[in-house]
Amino acid sequence: MTEPTETTSDTDRIDLLHQVLESGSVRKATRMLNALHPAEIAHVLQSLPPPQRKIVWRMVDDAAEGEVLLYLNDDVRDEILRGMDATEILAAAEGLAVDDLADLVQDLPATVTSEVLSSLDEQRRERLETALSYPEDSAGGLMNTDMVTVRPEVTLDVVLRYLRRRKDGLPEITDNLIVVSRQGRYLGVLYLTDLLTNDPDDSVAEVMTLDVQPIPADAKAREVANRFEQLDLVSAPVIDADGRVLGRVTVDDVMDVIREEADHQFLGHAGLSEGEDMFAPVLLSARRRAVWLGINLLTAFLAAWVIGLFEATIEQIVALAVLMPVVASMGGIAGTQTLTLAIRGIALGHLSAKNIRWLVSKEMAVAMLNGLLWAAVVAGIAWLWFGSSGIAAIIATAITLNVLAATLSGALLPLLLDRFGIDPALAGGVILTTVTDVVGFLSFLGLASLFLL
Amino acid sequence: MTEPTETTSDTDRIDLLHQVLESGSVRKATRMLNALHPAEIAHVLQSLPPPQRKIVWRMVDDAAEGEVLLYLNDDVRDEILRGMDATEILAAAEGLAVDDLADLVQDLPATVTSEVLSSLDEQRRERLETALSYPEDSAGGLMNTDMVTVRPEVTLDVVLRYLRRRKDGLPEITDNLIVVSRQGRYLGVLYLTDLLTNDPDDSVAEVMTLDVQPIPADAKAREVANRFEQLDLVSAPVIDADGRVLGRVTVDDVMDVIREEADHQFLGHAGLSEGEDMFAPVLLSARRRAVWLGINLLTAFLAAWVIGLFEATIEQIVALAVLMPVVASMGGIAGTQTLTLAIRGIALGHLSAKNIRWLVSKEMAVAMLNGLLWAAVVAGIAWLWFGSSGIAAIIATAITLNVLAATLSGALLPLLLDRFGIDPALAGGVILTTVTDVVGFLSFLGLASLFLL
Question: Which chain A residue shows the shortest CA-CA distance from B40?
Answer without folding.
Answer: A230
